[in-house]
Amino acid sequence: MRDEPKSVKSNSGWRRQRTFPVPEHLDPARKVFMGAHVRVGGGNTIAPRLHYFDAACAEHGIYAGYIGPHLTNTLT
């Protein structure tokens, strides 16, 4: 599991790329920032990422927001 660095969290455009829809019971705005992610496959920037929101501690499960190519950051 990885989390996005401060540079991504503080950049509004990059943050918006990682904000995905969720049910209203998780957030009244129906969207949350999903900085937590895992790399699927190999160890380079070409490997897809799975961004998710862990609401398991609130008994709501884990929500996948995105799976696909690496999103924009300081390295891409």
Quick recap:
The chain is an alpha+beta fold and 76 residues long. 13% of the residues lie in helices and 29% in strands.
What topology does this entry show?
Layout: H1 6-9, H2 12-17, E1 19-21, E2 31-33, E3 37-39, E4 49-54, E5 62-68
Antiparallel strand pairs: 1-2, 3-4, 4-5
Features:
two-stranded antiparallel ribbon, alpha+beta, three-stranded antiparallel β-sheet, 2 helices, 76 residues, 13% helix
Q: Quick check: average pLDDT?
A: 89
Structural class: alpha+beta
Sheet of most strands: 3 strands, antiparallel
**Order of adjacent strands in the largest pleated sheet:** 3-4-5
Distance between the termini: 20 Å
Uncertain residue segments: none
Shape: globular
Query: What's the alpha carbon Rg, rounded to whole Å?
Result: 13 Å
Tally of DSSP helical segments: 2
Tell me the helix content. Answer: 10-25%
According to DSSP, the number of beta strands is 5
Strand proportion, as a percent range, falls in 25-35%
Element-by-element helix/strand order: HHEEEEE
Characterization of the model:
This protein is α+β, with helices and mostly antiparallel strands and 76 residues long. It has helices at residues 6-9, 12-17, and strands at 19-21, 31-33, 37-39, 49-54, 62-68. It has a three-stranded antiparallel sheet with strand order 3-4-5, with no helix packed on it. A two-stranded antiparallel ribbon has the order 1-2.
